[in-house]
Amino acid sequence: MANVNVIAGGVGIVPPAETEEAKFARILLDELKFTQAVVDNLTENGYLVFSELADWGHKAVGKYCGRKQATPLNRGGCNYGDKTIKRLQGLVWQATELKRLNRNVLLDSNTTLELADEWFEEAIAELHKVDHGMEIESPEQFTYNGWKTWERSVYNYLSGKYNLRGIPLSYVIRRETAEAVFDAIEYTVDPESCRVKAAPLKGASFRKDNQDVLKLLKSLCQGTESWKWMETAKGGRAAMIALQEHYNGSAEGERRLNITRADLKELFFKRQDTFPFEKYVSRLKECYNTLEELEVPEYETEKVRTLLDHIQCNHDEVKQCVVLARTNHPENFQAACDYLASEIARIFPDKHPTSNRFTSPNKKKRYQRDRGRNVSNTGTSNHGVKRKNGVDISDPARYYSEAEWKKLDSDTQQALRNHPKRLAKLAKKGKTASVAAATVTTQGEKNKERAETVNALISALSHVASPGNRVRFPANGSNTAVVAAVQQSPAAATPALRFDHNGDPV
Q1: What is the pLDDT of residues 296-335, one digit of tens each?
Q2: Helix/strand/coil for 280
């Protein structure tokens, strides 16, 4: 029965409300310029309303339209034009976006060509982002002293990784349990953050993403002290919550507070070439950020005082800069840092750090004491140089001086002795020596043969030559007497002297 309203001048009939199916078809035909054949084809394949386009997929739409265009019209084919395909992909993106944001998937009656084209551009941008991802450095292995930094790095890394629905995987470890509600302004400013907040923590998509995050956390925590707190977790979200509950607890907070304050006491700037000022300031900021996270922030005046009091550089210009910074920036830590950084860069333009190990001298000992475990004194620099007790052991086959060898412990010495590269080098040296010895031996044998030939020739001449026709050998120098003796001894069957390979008497 039709609804009726009494209006001035009589009774008016109110037309029935437009159904979603009718509105969808009308907008496709009238606003987006789809042909009737395209609308009919979509309807025949089950796409009757706008909400049914959600999660269809950008690439899937292109394949669908390609198949329909390749199919004869009398067998269910349809001629989709290029612009029609793009606008359909834009509609699919908008329907998917509304579903990701937990909104009603309804097509606005004011949808226009320009709006559909804008949705298509959004779809292309998202497709590129999901396919290629963001160039974010993978988090480092878990470390206790860097818990907050590590936690942020994991969240940032997952923010650049997307699931099959185009939602950043960071939604798995967000702090909020319920899906957030946000307004249009917030969505306009940061749509990706809204997707993270609105993503449901249930369903097949979440179960898969939850396991992917768990794999990442296991790879970062296994073998560290954090493993015992998360090893029984069944998913990435539960694992991160377990770590947060432990390391953000009051006992751990007090422990980190003590370590941070001890770090502040041990941080000093003395030389630009060994511990640069930029590193000094960065370490100070890390400490102050930790104090803020623990809700015990330092006052600006205290930050400036610590910054300046711990500069123990003996350079006169640096001392003057410290005085000026104390006068001009007594309550602005960042301004004091900026001023000193520019001045120190001017004073030491060519100074570069000579070591990559800028850790305060007692920090490793303190962590060793607090954590009850050994700290290795073997390290590798950013340039690939491996050192042990200050000795470069990057090349196990090289020559080590006596002083260097004494610095190495017995285990390292044994490892170097048995290293394949060193053994191969020694084997090669042995082979070279053998070849040289063989060469000498061969040459000696040749000399012996030549000497025997000389002696045989002398002997033969002694037997054959008659006294009247004795062969005379020209002789000069020190050999004259020897040769004369041989030539004047007719009775001698064999000369008493022996000769070497050069013909000289032995």
Answers
A1: 889 999 999 999 999 999 999 999 999 999 999 999 999 9
A2: helix
* Maximum alpha-carbon separation in the chain: 172
Question: Shortest CA distance to 263 belongs to which of 241, 246, 288, 240?
Answer: 288
Phi/psi for 249 (5° steps) reads -70, 170
In terms of DSSP H, where are the helices of 45-136? 58-70, 82-100, 113-132
**Contact at 8 Å (CB) between 256 and 147?**
yes
Alpha carbon distance 393, 386 (integer Å): 6
Amino acid sitting at position 494:
T
Residue 460 token pair = 């033969």
Predicted model pTM = 0.54
Give the separation between CA 2 and CA 21, rounded to whole angstroms. 20
Q: Is 380 helix (H, G, I), strand (E, B) or coil?
A: strand
Give residues with Cβ within 8 angstroms of 32, minimum separation 6.
87, 91, 111, 113, 116
Q: State the helix-helix crossing angle for 363-371 and 250-266, rounded to 10 degrees.
A: 160
- The length of the chain is 506
Q: Give me the pLDDT at residue 364, please.
A: 45
Phi first, then psi: give them for residue 81, nearest 5 degrees: -80, 165
Q: Are 217 and 239 in contact (CB under 8 A)?
A: yes
Q: Please, are residues 5 and 14 in contact by the beta-carbon 8 Å criterion?
A: yes
Amino acid at 44: E
Are the C-beta atoms of residues 139 and 154 closer than 8 Å to each other? Answer: yes
Residue 23 token pair: 């509105």
Neighbours of 266 (CB within 10 A): 14
The 3-state DSSP class for residue 45 equals coil
> How far is residue 53's CA from residue 40's CA, in Å, rounded to a whole number?
15
For residue 474, give the 3-state DSSP assignment: coil
- Report d(CA 183, CA 194) in Å as an integer: 9
Three-state DSSP at 386 gives strand
85, 254, 285, 377, 497 from 486: Cα distances, Å? 116, 108, 101, 79, 9
Long-range Cβ contacts of 422-430 (<8 Å, 24+ apart): 422/396, 422/397, 424/397, 425/397
